[in-house]
Every structure is written in C-alpha cells, then in structure tokens.
Amino acid sequence: MQLEQIAFRYRRRAPWVLRDVTLTVPRGRIIEVNGANGAGKSTLLRLLAGVVPPVRGRVSGRPARVGYAPERFPAAQPFTAGSYLGHMARIRGVPADGIATWSERLDFTEMLGTRLPELSKGSAHKAGLIQALIASADLLVLDEPFAGLDTRTRTALPGLLSELAAGGTSVIVSDHQGDLRELPEIVRWQVSGHTVTTGQVPDEYATVEVNVRADEADALVARLTADGHRAHRR
Amino acid sequence: MRFHLSGYLRSTRALHPVLALALLLAIVFSSPLGGTPAQIRQGALNAIADLATLVFPICAWAARGLLDTEPDAQRHVSAVSAGRARALVAGPAAAYVFSAALALISPVYPLAEAAGPGLSPQVVLVAVALLLLSALAATALGALTSRAVIPSPATSILVLLGVCAVNVIIGLTRLNALTVPMIEWMRAAGHGATAFTHAFPLLALRTVAWTAIAGALYAWLRRTRP
Question: Is the pLDDT score of B103 beyond 60?
C-alpha cells in the first residue's frame, strides 16, 4: 500500500493537517506512529484506514480487508457488547466465531452481555479493538490501542499484534506511551510539521519501566529529562 | 441498514417524530370528513395532499435523528467495515425506511373514511406514492442537516426548519420550479382527482430531481466530513 503526495484538510480554506506525505506501508510489519498532540496522527490513521480520502494525492494498494479501531470507542450506543460485535461481524460478512475467540484473548468474554454504555473505559476500548480484530484484516489500524487497558491486556497486546504481523498483516498503531518499543523490527513514523518522516527505532534505545510513588513521579520524570532521557509519566 | 434502524429504534429518539406525527394527526383529523360521498372523497384527497406537506418536516427530523444516533467514531468504524460508499448509502436508506413508514401511517384515517364513498384505487395509489416521494425528499434534507454535515445541533435544526419554510414560501412564487412542489400538489388535489393524477408524473419528477440534487450535495459534502 502506498500514499503518494497526500494532503488533507477537513474544510476548504481550513489549515492543512497533512501535506506532501509519501509513505509505503510494509507488509507484515508493525508500524508505530508517533507525534505530539494535534500533530495529525489520528488524521493519518483515518487516511490509511480509508475513513476519509485525501484531498490531494493518491492512496493505492489498500487491502480489501481493513480493521480500524478509533482512539475513543463510541460506547454511547443502545446495544450489548455481544450484539454490537454481532452487527459488526455481519456488516463485514465475517463469521461471528471470531467474536468469541478475540473476546477470550482480550479477557472480554464476561462483558459480552453488558450494555455498551455501562462498560468501563478500558472494557469499551477492548470492544473497539475486537471489532477491528474480527475482520481478519490485511491492514489493521489502531489509534492509541493501549489507552485505558488493564495491565494484563496491555502486556498481552504487543504479542498479539506481533502474531498478526507474522501472519502478513500490516499493523499501524499510534502510541504515546511506548508500549511497542521493545518489539523487534518495529517501523517508526513521526508525524510533525504537517508531514510524516519514517525510520526505524534505533537499536541503541531501550524502554525502562520504573514503579515510583505517585507524589514523586513528576519529579523523577523531570530529573530524567534533565539528564537527557526521553521520559514521561503514564 | 439494519444496524442503523436497530440502534435508532432502541433509542428514545425514534419516539420524538412518532409523537409529533400523532399530535399532528390528532389535530388535523379532530373532526370527521363529512358531507356527501363526493365531498368525502375530495376531503380525503385534500387531506392526503396536505399531509404529504405536513409530514415533510417530521420525516426530515426523523431522518436527521436516525443518522445522528450513530456516534461520530462509529461512523468512522462503519466506513471502514462496510466501505465508504456502502456506509454513505446505508444511513440514508435506513432513514428513508423509517420516514416512509411514518408517511404511510399518516393517511390511514382519510383513506378509511373515503373507502366507503369509493375513492378510486388509482387515486389511492397516486396518493400513497406522493407520500413516499415526500418522505424521500425529506430524508435527503434530514441527511443534509445531520451531524456529519452540520456539527452544531442548533444550526442544523435551524437549517432544517428554514429549508421547509423557504420551500413553501418560494413555492408560492415564480421560482417554484426550485422547490419540492408542495404547493402544486396541494393545488392539484384541490382541483379534483383527475387533475391530481394528471399532475402527478411531473410533480413526482420534480421531487425526485430535488432529492437527487440534495443527495448529490450530501455525498459531496461527506467526502471530507467522515
């Protein structure tokens, strides 16, 4: 799949969100999309998933089966989680068996009978991930998939995504929190200045997790930043 | 389409236009169509033509409500799951099914009243077709004022009611060719069953043309409004 000289804005005369974006989406790889808030990561992901067409430029070779999970799952819908996922499977024309499989893998089975508005933020987020995963997609686009997830799912998700990538799926993930940094051969895209630059995560970098008292966290982040490290509080 | 209808019918939003229609019908038919058989037939025809105009804003409101029941992020998910073109059509198609049902409920009383005095099947068919066409144009207006196109609820309801009002006002002027021909179909019904059935093909064509233009505008605006 290729993006050639893509430009996008939401309204005529509105400022461009992205310009001159030329990218190739490698098959069977995980791509981590980074960038500051408002840089255009979600817009890039929507263009890649096919939610919107570019205003200028061309997208070619997008696979027929695309899975997309938005940053915030739309939980304000009058369905149970199971009924919602059933609708999504039917719309996609895929067997409903995938719902049980992915619900089990994401520890969501017990929530299938719960109404969507009653789900916790993390559980609702899982519903959003499952509707994208049941597609058996060749391109999987996940906007901040780790946000709000419990520790167990958060730990398991990179492995699940690696498994999908090994099976040939291109997995594109926007991630503020570095949950994918430890995966080997991850491709990194940086969104800034209305465009996207590409590059691998340098091998000499590693992610260290530190548990610290809540009232000392900000001070530790400040100290590490002052020492020249990239540090942030989750 | 089933997903849209299911979501709308499970929400309380679907009750709003139903209650508005019930109120309208209660007011319009608070007294029976009386008189000679010919007067009852003419009264029923006038009532149906008036209803085709009166249900227009209610159907547009219902269509807007149905489309707005789907959260913005779900629209994005649906666009990917179903494909953008299919998702673009599915919402308005579901809205039309609901609007058409509302429009078809509205003439039950006058048709029942006129059944005895012998309203001809041809006139009944044309009257029903007129109501379905009114619902079709109303659905296009509802889609154009849905949140995907006009994010502000206050602005969108103002545009919806404004278009309904302007349509009737322009319908009284020489620029009436630009409108959904409500004034003309009410006038044609007033001239009797023969004039009404003769005028129908052109009125239908104009309504379909108006809907097609509004639908094309909706599709064009939705291009960058996911």
Answer: yes
